[in-house]
Amino acid sequence: MNRGTARVRLPVAERRGQIIGVTTRLIAERGFWGLSMQDVADGCGLTVPGLLHHVGSKDGLLLAVLDHRDAEDGRALTADLGTDGLSAGVDLRRVCAALVRRNASQPEIVRLFAVLEAESLAPDHPAHAYFVTRQARVLETLTALATGVSDRPESLARQVIALMDGLQIQWLRDPGGTDLVVEWERAADTLFG
């Protein structure tokens, strides 16, 4: 949107959703370091001070995007599995298949996550602590689900994470030549025996 164009007032929740959507797209295209608050503001029909009113800072904006993604994925996974969460009674392979199907339906979000996860390896990245904590939480959750499935549940959990991450990168590089869901199922046959 051009800066001279009239601005539209939206309800707070709708505006926040718009900000998160525009930011998600821009980070997926450029990475966090390539993200301009002006570009986000322009994409939402806001001024930069108006944008900052909603998110506080560029770091706050990034964390809002990540928190939103986690919440949406959690809701979708719960709905897909028909459970109240990832309890010990849920089948690990079924959980993984649901995650892969979800990710296959949202390449922009997967791209955003892959870019940020790689960028945040730098300790000074604003999402560094988020990804360290998230990795520990995911490993713990998958390890719990792998208990009883494997005599080395943490090792299986690490292999699941590595396999998913690797297949997603291949799919993002060649979306027309890689069917994420099909490749996951083939690999899962080997992984889960």
From TrEMBL:
Name the record gives this protein: TetR family transcriptional regulator
Transmembrane regions: none
UniProt organism field: Virgisporangium ochraceum
GO molecular function, one term: transcription cis-regulatory region binding
Source taxonomy: Bacteria, Bacillati, Actinomycetota, Actinomycetes, Micromonosporales
Keyword check for Transcription: yes
InterPro entries referenced in this protein's UniProt entry, alphabetically: Homeodomain-like_sf, HTH-type_TetR-like_transc_reg, HTH_TetR, Tet_transcr_reg_TetR-rel_C_sf
This protein's UniProt keywords: DNA-binding, Transcription, Transcription regulation
Record-annotated HTH tetR-type domain positions: 13-73
Pfam families in alphabetical order: TetR_N
DNA-binding stretch(es), residue numbering of this chain: 36-55
